[in-house]
């Protein structure tokens, strides 16, 4: 089964063939690799007598606690591990081991408003160092290896597990790459798939097509400054390189969108003009009216990897990326701090035509996603393996199978299954094929075609507003535009079923929302007409006057036929652990109960102990509708809200 599919090791930024290629170039004093190696070897953090700065039990960012300490040690751990892998000198391995073991046994928490970003930067180097040590015969004791795995999964991963859809996209992409790295090192397929799914379909700014917003290559942060823009696309590039070492051609996703982003950014930073379209980001917070000249021309150490992949491996053209790479060759360490690996001239220089090895059967497809529509057509997409020439799509009614092939030898990473029964749960997997054989099956994904029996999903208040809801085997996801609920009108997407008389609707919120102006909640109403009588338990942000610090609250609302919305006297601010640093980052549960004309709202942090918010009186029809709603709160963008434990009884 797909869960048992093994990872390739070493399989992060450097695979076995990469290390052999670099060692051969150094031995033969091939340029520019040899000069790059000499500079790398002489770097202070590449020394086997490096004096460790840490470890510390807690580090943080904003407020800063030990960030430079951790980043310096992470740099040294990676660079010593790589020196060991390239030279075979045991002292380098011992130094890398010393650093990794010290931090793994000491660091217990990452704190601060920018904790997600900190956990996505320095730890990426630490995980790469650990991967190199473990799979290059460094005699790392198994007890220390297991301690390190527990540390990465127990301390680093919880900080990044929900990404950062509240922030600029470089936060998201940093979280993605570190999650991918931890997943490979810890052989955690589900975690790996979580990161890949976000790369291609995440709701935040860091998703590939949300960060590189069009085929011109304009980036979400191009109007912010050029330093952060290069930071963001470089993280996406690291994801693609790790995926490549696992046999996946993530570089090619969305018609080489990553290359377009690098070409656009390189061209502008080389002093040339590029087109620019002002576009609101997915948080709803950031709109830059023109491209930014801040830090223009300050090229970061990020271009060699991309140039060597697209031009040398794949034979494509990347003129501006190539010029940027040449301008700073040999590429130095990727600063500031531990922002990038850098050293790309050493790590990625390769001969032309060194692309896909066609002698092997392909890896399994990955990142399998399913979107269903109201007619029950299930649209599948996946990340294609390098060297695949076709695919077999398989379907089952249980996650463990048996899986039956429903389409053979299709081309491309997409398929629509229209032979389904609405309301039925299906699971899918895909295998790839080429002249050398079939791959293993992809990690499976499930969906309920259309919606579960008895459920419906209209747009309330606007017939043509964007919205869609779908259930998989675990949760309900609603994507919706719409401004939500104001004093005079409703504009939201509504997923509901009939409620006859008294009853309760309850659900859990699954972090996080993308639009930071989102509203969502539970509704009992008369039908689905615009401004129908309704009672609503709503979560929404109140303005604080600062876009980065909304005040999230939960409140009970009602509307009589055609009237303005009335709010109950009680408005409860949501606090830690539900809200941290003004972001809706924690799980919670809420319920709305009807007894005759009385409606009561409550919430819970554990689905056991409940806090009543308030009660409100309104006459509704005995035959009503009950469901969940979501709205982005901002025109021009959608939000995505996820719920679990959805019950109506």
UniProtKB/TrEMBL annotation:
It comes from Mucilaginibacter gossypiicola. This is Alginate lyase. One of its GO terms (molecular function) is lyase activity. Pfam families: Alginate_lyase. InterPro entries: Alginate_lyase_dom, Chondroitin_lyas, FN3_sf, Ig-like_fold. The keyword Lyase applies. Gene3D superfamilies: 2.60.120.200, Chondroitin AC/alginate lyase, Immunoglobulins. Keywords: Lyase, Signal. One of its GO terms (cellular component) is periplasmic space. The lineage of its organism: Bacteria, Pseudomonadati, Bacteroidota, Sphingobacteriia, Sphingobacteriales. Residues 70-268 form the Alginate lyase domain.
């Amino acid at each position: 089964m797909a869960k048992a599919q093994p990872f390739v090791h070493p399989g992060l930024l450097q695979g076995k063939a990469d290390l052999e290629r670099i060692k051969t170039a150094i031995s033969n004093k091939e340029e520019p690799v040899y000069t790059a190696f000499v500079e790398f070897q002489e770097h202070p953090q590449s020394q086997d007598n490096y004096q460790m700065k840490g470890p510390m039990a807690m580090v943080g960012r904003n407020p800063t606690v030990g960030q430079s300490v951790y980043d310096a040690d992470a740099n040294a751990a990676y660079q010593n591990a790589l020196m060991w892998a390239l030279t075979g000198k045991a002292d380098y391995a011992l130094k890398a081991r010393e650093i990794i073991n010290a931090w793994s046994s000491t660091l217990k928490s990452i704190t601060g408003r920018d904790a997600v970003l900190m956990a996505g930067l320095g730890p990426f180097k630490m995980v790469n160092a650990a991967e190199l040590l473990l799979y290059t015969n460094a005699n790392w004791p198994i007890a220390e290896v297991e301690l390190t795995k527990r540390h990465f999964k127990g301390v680093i991963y919880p900080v990044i597990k929900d990404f950062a859809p509240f922030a600029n996209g470089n936060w998201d992409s940093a979280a993605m790459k570190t999650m991918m790295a931890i997943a490979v090192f810890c052989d955690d397929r589900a975690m790996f798939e979580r990161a890949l799914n976000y790369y291609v379909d995440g709701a935040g700014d860091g998703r590939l097509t949300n960060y590189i917003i069009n085929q011109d290559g304009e980036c979400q942060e191009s109007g912010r400054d050029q330093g952060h823009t290069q930071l963001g696309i470089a993280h996406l590039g690291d994801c693609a390189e790790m995926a490549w070492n696992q046999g996946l051609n993530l570089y090619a996703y969305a018609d080489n969108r990553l290359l377009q982003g690098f070409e656009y950014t390189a061209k502008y930073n080389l002093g040339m003009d590029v087109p620019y379209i002002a576009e609101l980001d997915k948080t709803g917070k950031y709109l830059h009216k023109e491209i930014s000249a801040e830090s223009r021309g300050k090229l970061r150490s990020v271009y060699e990897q991309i140039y060597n992949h697209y031009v040398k491996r794949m034979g494509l053209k990347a003129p501006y990326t190539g010029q940027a790479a040449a301008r700073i060759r040999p590429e130095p360490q990727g600063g500031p701090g531990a922002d990038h690996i850098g050293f790309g001239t050493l790590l990625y220089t390769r001969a032309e035509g060194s692309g896909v090895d066609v002698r092997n059967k392909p890896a399994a497809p990955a990142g399998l996603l399913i979107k269903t529509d109201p007619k029950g057509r299930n649209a599948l997409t996946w990340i294609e393996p390098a060297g695949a020439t076709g695919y077999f799509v398989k379907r089952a009614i249980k996650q463990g199978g048996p899986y039956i092939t429903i389409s053979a030898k299709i081309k491309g990473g997409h398929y629509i299954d229209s032979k389904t029964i609405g309301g039925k749960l299906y699971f899918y997997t895909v295998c790839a094929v080429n002249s050398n054989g079939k791959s293993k099956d992809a990690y499976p994904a499930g969906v309920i075609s259309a919606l579960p029996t008895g459920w419906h999903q209209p747009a309330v208040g606007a017939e043509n507003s964007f919205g869609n809801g779908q259930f998989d085997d675990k949760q309900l996801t609603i994507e919706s535009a719409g401004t939500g609920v104001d004093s005079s009108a409703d504009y939201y997407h509504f997923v509901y079923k009939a409620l006859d008389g008294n009853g309760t609707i309850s659900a859990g919120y699954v972090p996080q929302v993308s639009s930071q102006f989102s509203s969502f909640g539970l509704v009992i109403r008369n039908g689905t007409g615009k401004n129908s009588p309704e009672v609503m338990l709503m979560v929404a942000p109140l303005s604080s006057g600062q876009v980065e610090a909304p005040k999230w609250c939960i409140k009970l609302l009602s509307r009589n036929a055609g009237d303005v919305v009335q709010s109950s006297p009680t408005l409860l601010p949501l606090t830690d652990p539900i809200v941290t640093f003004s972001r809706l980052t924690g799980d919670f549960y809420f319920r709305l109960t009807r007894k005759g004309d009385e409606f009561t709202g409550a919430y819970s942090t554990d689905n056991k102990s409940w806090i009543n918010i308030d009660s409100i009186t309104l006459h509704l029809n005995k035959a009503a509708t009950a469901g969940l709603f979501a709205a982005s709160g901002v025109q021009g963008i959608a939000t995505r809200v996820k719920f679990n434990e959805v019950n109506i009884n």
